Recover the amino acids of this structure.
């Protein structure tokens, strides 16, 4: 069973359900999906939300190894994504990288905009968006205790200061294709609406928007889903 955690924010609840649907419909291996909800982390996550945290899961994502009892592998994804590939391929990549603490898409870019969805500030920092999709080898992420996650500077968490660089494995960028930052790619496995999902009015015409709405319709209309 592949354990998958998707960041949940009340402002984007429809994104969580649509992403989960897209994963389940394409997976050829058993997948268990859980929302990473701040409201369910009382007593575990105690820090106040900072001004640069654009979602409720900006930092709670780093609790995934602890929530997984530091056993096996777990996947974390931002909710503003759409899966177009089979998670069995990610499972195979995990098996070939047992020596790594975490696998990520190692983006090397500077965001094009100063603002993003809901007029949030577009924070720019090294290793931007590496943490939006993480495959955690939980037993090798022992530093990510609740105490550390609650106290560490946010940028230290997102820059992976909690592990050695040699322990950060790379994934093909197709597994976290940044919509609006990269050109359209028909072979993308996961598309990431990092500037804003098509469920927001300002981004209804972005790349892959039609695919997101088709996924949403498939999820919400039983007759369509059955065909």
């Amino acid at each position: 069973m592949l354990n998958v955690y998707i960041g949940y924010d009340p402002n984007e609840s429809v994104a969580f359900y649509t992403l989960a649907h897209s994963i389940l419909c394409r997976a050829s291996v058993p997948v268990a999906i859980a929302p990473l909800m701040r409201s369910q982390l009382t007593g575990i996550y105690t820090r106040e939300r900072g001004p640069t945290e654009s979602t409720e899961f900006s930092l709670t994502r780093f609790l995934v190894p602890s929530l997984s009892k530091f056993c096996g592998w777990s996947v974390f994804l931002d909710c503003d994504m759409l899966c177009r590939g089979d998670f069995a391929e990610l499972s195979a990549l995990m098996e070939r990288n047992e020596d790594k603490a975490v696998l990520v898409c190692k983006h090397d870019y500077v965001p094009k905009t100063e603002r993003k969805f809901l007029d949030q500030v577009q924070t720019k920092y090294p290793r931007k968006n590496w943490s939006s999709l993480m495959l955690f080898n939980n037993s090798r992420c022992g530093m990510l205790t609740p105490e550390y996650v609650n106290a560490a500077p946010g940028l230290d968490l997102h820059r992976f200061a909690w592990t050695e660089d040699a322990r950060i494995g790379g994934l093909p960028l197709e597994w976290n294709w940044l919509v609006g930052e990269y050109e359209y790619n028909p072979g993308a496995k996961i598309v990431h609406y990092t500037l804003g999902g098509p469920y927001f009015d300002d981004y209804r015409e972005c790349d892959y928007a039609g695919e997101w709405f088709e996924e949403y319709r498939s999820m919400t209309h039983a007759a369509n889903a059955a065909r």
